[in-house]
From TrEMBL:
PANTHER family: DNA LIGASE 1, DNA LIGASE 1/3 FAMILY MEMBER. It comes from the Bacteria. The lineage of its organism: Bacteria, Bacillati, Bacillota, Bacilli, Bacillales. Belongs to the ATP-dependent DNA ligase family. Signal peptide: none annotated. The keyword Glycosyltransferase does not apply. Keywords: Ligase. Residues 87-187 form the ATP-dependent DNA ligase family profile domain. InterPro entries: ATP-dep_DNA_ligase (IPR050191), DNA_ligase_ATP-dep_cent (IPR012310). GO terms for biological process: DNA recombination; DNA repair. Pfam families: DNA_ligase_A_M (PF01068). GO terms for molecular function: ATP binding; DNA ligase (ATP) activity. This is DNA ligase-1.
Length: 282
């Protein structure tokens, strides 16, 4: 079951919704059926995470949650989590944070209201060094999101207290498709920046972006999200008149066109994470 974006990316306080943190990690299913299996996006990743081989849950139980690695502040670190996911040599310590229970001792509980499933989860999961449970609040989403902004965390999630766990297939089924439901909504803590268009890719015409830094333009990577066909057409004449060079992959232009973008901060490399075009400045 996947999240929808909340309207206008704004939190709301309603007594029929739970609010909780959105953790910046990797979605993971922990299946302790006949044998332990770990899945992300229907891919078996059991061999990657031996720390999770002794789950403190009953046989026949499946949990949904987020796999995270925390930084020195205790905040989820997505890059460190991906490094741990991609290499067995990484020493980054992982933790699985459960936010739902799908099967309990062999019984399918996805049809129960979320409130009841969370009660089951709290009673079933004994927290350890590697397994923990998401804390939830009733309402209070606006206040929680203010705290998320202050701390620089990813965002929050709002879930209807009576929502069922919706799925087109059985959990962990190869090729299964998850459902995106309005019963679960996310509010992202975006940052906003003004950037310059410095070029575009020859293959898909995504824009290269950067920001002035002294006498140079610091590259921030490529941007593909939020660029409509109409916007490409409106900006193209200005880009076409300002070409200064190219290579086999990119065409480079004078940084004359400014854009407003929203994004999720920066990678350790300095590149912008997931920039989305908001508007082209006049």
């Amino acid at each position: 079951m996947l999240l929808q974006y909340a309207k206008d990316n704004e939190p709301f306080d309603r007594p029929d919704y739970f609010s909780m943190l959105k953790l910046d990690g990797i979605r993971l299913l922990v299946s302790n059926m006949d044998v332990l299996k770990l899945y992300t996006k229907n891919m078996d990743v059991t061999a990657r995470f031996p720390e999770l081989y002794s789950p403190p849950i009953s046989k026949g139980t499946i949990l949904d949650g987020e796999l995270i690695v925390t930084d020195e502040k205790g905040h989820p670190d997505w890059e460190a989590c991906m490094a741990r996911f991609q290499s067995k040599k990484s020493k980054n310590q992982i933790q699985f944070c459960a936010f739902d229970i799908l099967y309990f001792k062999g019984e399918n509980v996805m049809g129960l209201p979320l409130e009841k499933r969370l009660e089951l989860l709290e009673a079933e999961l004994e927290e350890t060094e590697f397994y923990t449970r998401m804390r939830v609040m009733t309402g209070s989403a606006v206040k929680l999101f203010d705290l998320v902004r202050e701390a620089g965390l990813e965002g929050i999630v709002l879930k209807k207290r009576d929502s069922k766990y919706e799925s087109r297939s059985q959990p962990c089924e190869p090729g299964g498709k998850a459902i995106r439901s309005w019963s679960w909504q996310k509010v992202i803590n975006y940052a906003y920046s003004d950037v310059m268009i410095t070029g575009y890719s020859k293959k898909d015409h995504n824009w290269l972006i950067g920001v002035p830094e002294g006498e140079r333009i610091k590259p921030l990577g490529t941007m593909e999200l939020g660029i409509t066909s109409q916007l490409r057409k409106s900006v193209w004449p200005r880009l076409g008149r300002s070409i200064i060079g190219e290579n086999k992959d990119f065409v480079f232009v004078d940084p004359l066109v400014s854009c407003r973008v929203k994004h999720r901060g920066y990678y350790k490399s300095g590149l912008m994470r997931l920039p989305v075009l908001e508007e082209v400045n006049s």
